[in-house]
């Protein structure tokens, strides 16, 4: 049997060519574009450096509602008790103007500081401490002098034109999208998403909400894999549930295979009488075998010849997981998740700890067993459910995956085990 590390390495080698795809260029990403294009989320990653085309801020502007003044004039006026005539109001968005000597101009937050002014005095520090009607002949006084630069946000104080705005590899969250928009960058290049077809197999499967007949179950694997792939930055271009006959699977691959970079299947990979994925794809380039892991032993992997499946031409990498839900999800975590996240420019590995067990556990020594668990208030790992691959509810209530490596037949309470935090990215 192949080891866990060997199988993960094989998946990585197969998908390595996807790392050389051209970046995806995004142009004109207004708020409406961001709102209507979910493909820009979650956490897309820059493929190339972005250099700022402008100064940030682009011009000197006021940090406060108040008065734009010359600081030297204020010092003289305070010493002599002289008030200032009030100049024309300056609103945010008004062109940069000139401050007439000897005047104080009412200025709003974000408005351009006029030429000649070098400070802003907040309205609260003025007498009167409110803005007077425009064209008023009244004056304004200040009790204290002001230092040059007070409450002025100078041009380029955040970033200068030509400096690095965001580096390649930056994950784009709200602040990063915001600074790109603030700099008015015309376009950006993103790490391209892997386009994936998801196929869940089984004659017994029905979609949630549909009536169940005798011997039928709801399809959980499609929900598992579509969600898990999306969290890895992949683009699920098609998802379907197919029967065990093989015709549906061949038809989807012939029609849609050329639209994808990867096919991920669940079920139909073992040694039973109705192993549709193995029956259809073994002759088209895939290898099927066992990995020394529990759950998730039966696995399929390879590049399928689409022409052999009825398509026009081309090939499609395939990762084929077993059908039990926990087996499919554990397989995804072990073999595919780290590879896809690395391709997306995201952190590839789950956070790893070594924590003590709260209870003893046994494991088949020839296999790498992956159990599900939680961490109690004392930092000990408590296992959730048993080792069986159908216990999806126990998995859903877990926060860690517990790893018992090959050679470990048993571990006692208090023994340290490796755990992956699945409640964190």
Protein architecture, described:
The structure is a single chain. 21% of the residues lie in helices and 27% in strands. With 425 residues, the chain is α+β, with helices and mostly antiparallel strands. It has four domains: 22-56 and 157-190, Molybdopterin biosynthesis moea protein, domain 2, CATH 3.90.105.10; 61-153, Molybdopterin biosynthesis moea protein, domain 3 (Molybdopterin biosynthesis moeA protein, domain 3), CATH 2.170.190; 195-343, 3-Layer(aba) Sandwich (Molybdenum Cofactor Biosythetic Enzyme, Chain A), CATH 3.40.980.10; 352-421, MoeA, C-terminal, domain IV (Beta-clip, Beta Barrel), CATH 2.40.340. A six-stranded mixed beta sheet has the order 16-13-17-21-20-18, sandwiched between helices. Strands 19, 22, 24, 25, 26 and 28 form a six-stranded mixed beta sheet that branches. A three-stranded antiparallel beta sheet has the order 6-4-7.
